[in-house]
Structure formats: C-alpha cells, structure tokens
Amino acid sequence: DQQVKQNSPSLSVQEGRISILNCDYTNSMFDYFLWYKKYPAEGPTFLISISSIKDKNEDGRFTVFLNKSAKHLSLHIVPSQPGDSAVYFCAASATGGFKTIFGAGTRLFVKA
Amino acid sequence: EPEVTQTPSHQVTQMGQEVILRCVPISNHLYFYWYRQILGQKVEFLVSFYNNEISEKSEIFDDQFSVERPDGSNFTLKIRSTKLEDSAMYFCASNPTVNTGELFFGEGSRLTVL
After folding, report:
1. Beta bridge partners of A66
2. What would the pLDDT profile of A69-109 be if each residue is shown by its tens digit?
3. Which residues, listed in sequence order, are joined to residue A56 by a DSSP beta bridge?
C-alpha cells in the first residue's frame, strides 16, 4: 500500500548547492503534507509542512512545493549544509483521519 | 523542551516471548501512536489511540499486538508472542491535535527477536 512514494532512495549534493527531494502521493483525501528528517538512532523530527490549500511554504532554507494536480510535492533545501545529511521522509495525512502515512525516505548526503 | 520518551532503548528477546515497549508522550498531547521501521525500510503506521481507545489500526496490528494507557502518563505496546519478523525499531509518537499530522516522535525502541 504505497500511498506515499519517494522514488529516490538517495541523493548526493555539494555543500552550498540546492537539494531537491521529491515525493508523490496517490490518495486524493490527503490534505496535509509534511517532511520529517531522521538521523541514525533517533526518531523522525518534523521539518516543514504544507496544507493542500497552499502551493508553497517556506521556512528559512527549507521550502516545500505542492502540485495537487500532479499529486506531487518537493522539498528544496538551499543552501545545503553538511549537517543536512540525514534521511528525509515525506508524509501525508487526511483531515479527520487518525494516521500519518510515510514514504520510504530519501537519504541525503551533503558533501563538504 | 517537552519530549516523548521511550523505554527500553533496545530489547533482545526469544521468539515466542512477550514484549512490552513503553512510552511517555508529551503531557498535554491527546493522540498517541505507534509506528515501526524495519531496518532500511519505511516508517509504518501501526496504531493510533485517543480517549482511551484505538482510533485506527493497520493490517500489521493483528491480534498479537495490543496497546494500553494504564495511567495518565504511560502508553504501552505489547507484543504477545514475538516472531522473527517483529524485529524492528518501534517509535512512539504523540500530538496535541489530529488535524495536521504533525507528530512528535520518541527516539525509538529497537526490538531484536532471536
């Protein structure tokens, strides 16, 4: 049941450049989308989110874009820093539901 | 800053044994969750809990699993008869509202079934 898909298992980026992580979803009922960051031996931590009524949300170096017609969202990190190296999970939820569904994650490597 | 705490951090058990994983959610949160991550795979939803009852559960959460909030602070996941495939990292999470999906996760309990 792959309602949230992250097709790139890994991404390598040079420090200072832009990192773009992609995510697709299939369930039209999803109306809230989130990105989580996870370091080894830690739980996921919330990074940024976007409601379906918006197409962009920005927080410092992190911007999430939502294309509802394509059922696609992306996370842009600019400039990328070595400390950004982690696994990034895309997630989605539906209002009134009681679960958040996660993608498989993309491991980001930011090279100094 | 308030955080979700989980114990134990790592448990090794024999197949067929019962395991209880414990969590203390953030104190003013109302919704509680268990997720698991098998090594290298995605974070999978197991169960959500609100108002002292299960709100939603996945197909993974079969009869060998149960959850309980025995007092005002703890939230437990019990696996009655562990199987090798139950080996995973189990994450507890909580949130103050169900409307956004923004979850606060603990650091996880690693379960190894031999």
Report:
1. A73
2. 999 999 999 999 999 999 999 999 998 788 899 999 999 99
3. A65
Q: Would you say B68 and B21 are in contact if contact means Cβ atoms under 8 Å apart?
A: no
CA neighbor of B27 nearest in space, from B52, B2, B1, B53: B2
In this complex, do A102 and B100 lie within 8 Å of one another by their Cβ atoms?
no
Chain A nearest C-alpha distance from B65 (Å): 17
Residues of B in contact with A49 (CB under 8 A): 100-102
* Cα R_g (chain B), whole angstroms: 13
Cβ pair A45, A36 in contact under 8 A: yes
Instruction: Read off the pLDDT of residues B54-95 as tens digits, 9 standing for 90 and up.
Output: 999 999 999 999 999 988 789 999 999 999 999 999 999 999
A96 or A65, which is more confident: A65
Cβ distance of A44 and B91 shorter than 8 Å? yes
CA distance A38 to chain B (A): 10
